[in-house]
Amino acid sequence: KAGGQELEHWQQESAPVILKRLLVASMAAAVVWRLQRNTSPEAEELKKVLTQLSGKSRKPPTASILLSGLFVLLQILDYLDSIGGDDLNQITKLRSLLKKCLPNNV
Fold it and tell me: Using CA atoms, how far apart are residues 33 and 11, in angstroms rounded to an integer?
């Protein structure tokens, strides 16, 4: 519950579905646990990215912050995969769409 998975808000009613969700949450927690202990330059860069994507800042980032950022990053990558094509081109299109649809300075 305190690890950012918001178990109290899950709406699954059957045991197999709850078990699957718990397994996914456990795997995500294990990935973040390992990342927190990794001190390689790549891991430090990923921690910065995940912290920024989480919308929170704290040094060192907590597991909850890293989980939140990981969730956002995985959603972004999934979306880019779903629309296909060149990722940089798709990002440019999304940025243009954002500028057209949202107020200035966003």
Answer: 26
Asked, as a colleague might, if the bond just before 60 is cis with ω within 30 of 0, I would say yes
Contact 1/7 with Cβ under 8 angstroms? yes
- Supply the pLDDT for residue 46: 94
Mean pLDDT, rounded, for 25-52: 92
Measured between alpha carbons, how far is 51 from 71 in angstroms, rounded to an integer? 11
Helix (H, G, I), strand (E, B) or coil at 32: helix
Give every CB contact of residue 12 below 8 A, 6+ residues apart in sequence: 18, 21
Judged against a pLDDT cut of 70, whether residue 24 lies above it is answered with: yes
Q: Give pTM, 2 decimals.
A: 0.71
Residue 75: DSSP 8-state = H
Dist CA 41 CA 25 (whole Å): 26
Please state, in angstroms and rounded to a whole number, the distance separating the CA atoms of residues 38 and 44.
Answer: 8
